[in-house]
């Protein structure tokens, strides 16, 4: 599975809300910014070193977490 498909898979697993907006976040590899109706967000991207999908939340941009199935 390529990196873009990894990102799409993670987004489909994490997002259960009906009212979200998904935007490109070009500052990070394959980055996507998912914003809810309250303005809170999660940023999902590909970590080249770890070869995993990582994510962070609004206000925690200096900390990334690895998504594992």
UniProtKB/TrEMBL annotation:
Tree of life domain: Bacteria
Protein name according to UniProt: Uncharacterized protein
Taxonomic source organism: Halobacillus seohaensis
């Amino acid at each position: 599975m390529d990196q873009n498909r990894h990102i799409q898979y993670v987004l489909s697993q994490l997002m259960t809300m009906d009212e979200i907006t998904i935007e490109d976040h070009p500052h990070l590899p394959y980055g996507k910014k998912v914003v809810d109706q309250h303005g809170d967000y999660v940023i999902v991207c590909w970590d080249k070193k770890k070869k995993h999908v990582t994510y962070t939340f609004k206000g925690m941009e200096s900390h990334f977490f690895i998504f594992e199935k």
